[in-house]
Predict the structure.
Amino acid sequence: MHEKIAGAVLSEDGPWGGGSDGGDGGKKPRRTPIGAGAGPSALDALIQRGRDRLGNGGGMGGGQRFPLGGAWRWAVLGLVLLWVALTSTHTIGPQQRGVITRFGKYVGMLQPGLGLSFPAPIDIVSKIDVDNIHVIDIDTGVDGGSGQNLMLTGDENIIDLAYSVRWNIRDPELYMFELQDPDGTIREVAESAMREAIARVTLDQAIGAQRGQIEQQVAQHAQETLDSYHSGVVIQGVAIKQADPPTEVVDAFKEVSAAQQNAQSYLNQARAYATQVTAKAQGESTAFDAVYAQYKLAPEVTRRRMYYETMEKVLAKTDKTIVEPRNVVPYLAPPATVAAKPQEPTK
C-alpha cells in the first residue's frame, strides 16, 4: 500500500501508474491533458482508502476481502429483538402486582402471571409486593439520643412508650403516586394517633388495664387518616411493646406500684373473707327457717329435740355421768386401792 498520496494518486503518468518507458532513453514523460481520462482526485482516493480499511477488512495486502457490513446489521437487529423481548414480557408473582407507567404516566396494572407491555423505555413495569407485612418500630421520640419516647397522659403524667405498626399495601397505584415517603408518613400518622390516645387516659390505664383498647383506637385513627391521604395502605395492627414511666422516676414508681398491689391484695382478701362469712350466715339463716317451719307444725316435739341436740353438743366432751334419782339407787364406785403386798416370812 502506498502511504504517500503524491506517489499513488497525483501521478503524472495517469491513473494506471504508467511511468516512463525504459526504452525511451531518458525522454521526457508525456502529460495527459486535463479532462481527458484524468484519474481520481486526492479527496476521492482518501475516502476510498478509509472505506477499504473499515468495511473491507482493513486492506489486507493482496488477499481476499470479506465485507462485514451485513454481519453488523444482523447483530444489531438481534440485540434490538432481544431487548424488546426482555422488556416486553413480565412474570408477576402471586403476591405481586405490576404497575405500568408509560412515559411516567400510570396506564394499567398487571395481575399475577405472565404480562405483556410495550418495551422500555416506552413502558416501565414496577413490581409491588402487596402481601408482605411491613413493620415500623417506634422506639424513640424527640429525645432520640436517650432512647425514650415520652408522652403526656390525661392525668398529666409522663410515660415512655415503645410500639410497632404493621401494615401492607392495598392499592399499588395510590401507594406509588400519592405518597412521596410511605414509611415516614405512616410513622408520623401512627405517632400522632398514639399521642392523642394516651392524652385521653391516665398513667395507670396506659400501663395496664386499657392497653388493648389503646392499640385498637390508634390503629383505627391511623387508618382513617391514611385513607384521607389516599395512601393505598392498610394498618394491620398496633402493638405496645413497652409502657413505663421515665427512667429518672422508675424506682419510685415501682415502689408506688408495689404498695398499690399490696393494698389491692389486702382488699381482695377482705372481700373474700366477707364473702365467706356472708355465705355461712346465709346458710345458717336458711337452716333456721327450716327448723322454724318444723317447729310450727309440732312445737313440743321440736322443742324437746332441740333441747336434746343442744345438750348433746354441750356435754359431748365432758366426763360426767348423769343418773336419774327416780327408781334408781345411786351407786358410786369406791376409788381403786392398791392391794398390800404380802410380807415374806422371817427366816
